[in-house]
Specification:
Helix content: 40-55%
Distance between the termini: 52 Å
Strand content: 15-25%
Number of strands: 2
Structural class: alpha+beta
Mean pLDDT: 95
Largest sheet: 2 strands, antiparallel
Low-confidence stretches: none
Strand order of the largest sheet: 1-2
């Protein structure tokens, strides 16, 4: 887990915004993009779990014949 160093902006003594150093923001953005990619991959695998598959050996045979 990354260590964050937020600065909080308050209004009426209540936290309204968190400001992060730019490098920390970029790291969070990268992690969120990776998480989205992983979710998309899992969704795709789930959608295709009942699809017909072909082995690499069979593909080679088809291409060479």
């Amino acid at each position: 887990m990354i260590e964050l160093h937020p600065e909080f902006l308050t209004k009426n003594s209540e936290k309204q915004f968190a400001v992060l150093p730019y490098e920390e923001f970029l790291k969070i953005k990268e992690l969120l993009e990776d998480l989205e990619d992983l979710r998309d991959l899992r969704d795709s695998k789930e959608e295709q779990k009942d699809s017909v598959t072909v082995t690499l050996a069979d593909v080679k045979k088809l291409l060479l014949s």
